[in-house]
Write a structure and sequence with these properties.
Largest sheet: 6 strands, parallel
Helix content: 40-55%
Structural class: alpha/beta
Shape: globular
Strand content: 15-25%
Number of strands: 6
Oligomer: single chain
Radius of gyration: 18 Å
Distance between the termini: 65 Å
């Protein structure tokens, strides 16, 4: 019985920590995210955070579609000059950045205004590489609100001045995000670094 109480207490403590972390990140970043295109400040580079083009069903992934829509809106409104696409290209048959690039070009974004980061395996990798590889210290994140908040939280830790433009969301329940934010916080505490860095790429 004593062991069971200890297990319950530990579980309650962890749950409280996860819950608190989630809402703390929201509180710290809410003033830096925008739904209103006219209100968001201009930045040289918009960092489009990757996701797969297709859902498990084979249909278009709406997270992907709405991020494309948001990036195009920002660029055409003159709120960004370049789009840096950061995503996963860990397999030959899976290439998030190139999928985004092709669809952005199809929507009228000039190819020379698009830069690709093929090593954005996680949000932390995308954020840190934006600074260390692409030399950006001020940036606009482009993703859904919950994702932008986490990205900005990470960016602030690395002294990156960041805002986020919210793509249309797909659903309101983001249980996985509770865990993702706790993982992100632990990564910062333990100074976890991106899987790859490499040579610098200048955006100009």
């Amino acid at each position: 019985m004593k062991k069971l109480k200890i297990i319950i207490l530990i579980g309650a403590f962890i749950s409280l920590g996860v819950f608190t972390t989630y809402h703390w990140i929201s509180f710290r970043t809410n003033h830096l995210i925008y739904d209103d295109l006219s209100a968001i400040p201009k930045n040289k580079v918009g960092l489009l955070l990757g996701t797969g083009k297709y859902a498990a069903s084979g249909n278009i992934n709406l997270f992907y579609k709405y991020r494309i829509d948001a990036a195009v809106k920002l660029y055409k409104a003159g709120k960004i000059e370049y789009i840096l696409v950061s995503g996963d290209n860990s397999r030959k048959d899976y290439d998030e950045p190139s999928d985004f690039k092709n669809d952005l070009i199809a929507r009228g974004i000039p190819e020379d205004r698009i830069f690709l980061d093929y090593a954005g395996f996680r949000t932390l990798d995308s954020v840190v590489r934006a600074k260390e590889i692409f030399e950006q210290t001020s940036i606009t994140f482009i993703s859904q609100k919950f994702h932008n908040q986490r990205a900005i939280y990470i960016a602030n830790h690395y002294d990156i001045k960041a805002v986020g433009f919210n793509a249309k969301d797909v659903y309101n329940s983001h249980f996985r995000e509770y865990l993702a934010r706790s993982k992100a916080s632990l990564d910062l505490v333990f100074n976890v670094q991106p899987k790859f860095l490499g040579d610098k790429i200048t955006i100009q």
